[in-house]
Write a structure and sequence with these properties.
By secondary structure, the chain is of the alpha/beta class. It has 2 domains: about 190 residues, 3-Layer(aba) Sandwich (Isopropylmalate Dehydrogenase), CATH 3.40.718; about 140 residues, Isopropylmalate Dehydrogenase (3-Layer(aba) Sandwich), CATH 3.40.718. It is built from 11 helices and 12 strands. The longest helix has 17 residues. It starts with a strand and ends with a helix. Adenosine-5'-triphosphate binds next to loops.
Length: about 350
Amino acid sequence: MQKIIVVPGDGIGPEVTEEAVTTLQALGADLEFTFLDQINADRYLRDGVALTDSELELIRTGGTVLFGAVGDPRVTTPDYARGVLLRLRTELDLFVNYRPAVLLDERLSPLRDESRRGIDCVVVRENTEGLYSGVGGSLRAGTPDEIAVDQEMSTYLGVSRVIEYAYGIARRSVCMVDKSNAVRFGGQLWQRVWRAARERHTEVASSHLYVDAAAMKLITDAPSFDVIVTNNSYGDILSDLTAELAGGLGTAASANINPQTGAGLYEPVHGSAPDIVGKGLANPAGAVLSAALLLRDRGLKSEAEALEQAVRHTLAQRRCTPDLGGTLSTRQAGEAIRAALS
Ligand code: ATP
């Protein structure tokens, strides 16, 4: 029996998560779901609570979370999103954000030149440090003399373990991405740790790019990438780029994991998308493919493959939502994926 804690969250999160859960149930695997629907912006606005300690403990004990999205236009401070998602990433020490990008169907590539389209890579994003660590402060806030400082934090432990993970999953190559020509101290740390890892892993081809050059090369030569390892903010941005190259934000899946403890939080790369909430426009593919990542990590490989193939099949037949050129609603797209399972 695999226990899964479901946190649908906000915006289109509940819409796509419902399709992912129904699709998991259709697999007939031995899965048990616990729903934490109360974690959402409504509660935060009402009670000022993002995530309670008992919810955190339940998640910590369960260890496997299927997540929708957090975010709501009515919430104007970052405290809510930080209090849910960043807190879970930090408290469960989910130091790897694994974001695969595989072209799901030729017609979905935004690139004109066919030879540049075949993206099949993984962005391994450091998930607990960097610019999002919350270190910083402000002076004279709200005045014309305001000073705001957000510090980018990199630790030897954090950088070492994520680079080691990247080499561990590489099929062909690892490209380390930083901005060490401009970011002095963290840049040197990433460089030093990566060079040592490169020496240990001579079976894997190693390369380095500055983040601006990496963005360019992803457009001009995406097929040359296998594993990209980078820090929290560059990984955030580059993985939206790879998601678009692979078929669109609506199809992109991710896993927040700690490979040492086995804890994992699986979520689509997209956010709450407030502009399309309640309209049946949300593509459930990213949520379903995130569920596939969860199954794979829990040793249910054939079930994970069944989900992935079902998504590919429906996309090839244009049985999908309007973001990918289809005419189906969120529910209908989920039903099409489930029909393709059998
Ligand atoms: P958040 O602040 O929660 O990240 P956001 O609107 O800034 O939300 P996303 O939710 O990632 O960012 O989405 C950006 C846009 O992409 C959305 O406004 C929406 O139009 C589109 N989009 C995102 N996810 C999907 C999806 N699953 N299906 C269809 N369109 C989507």
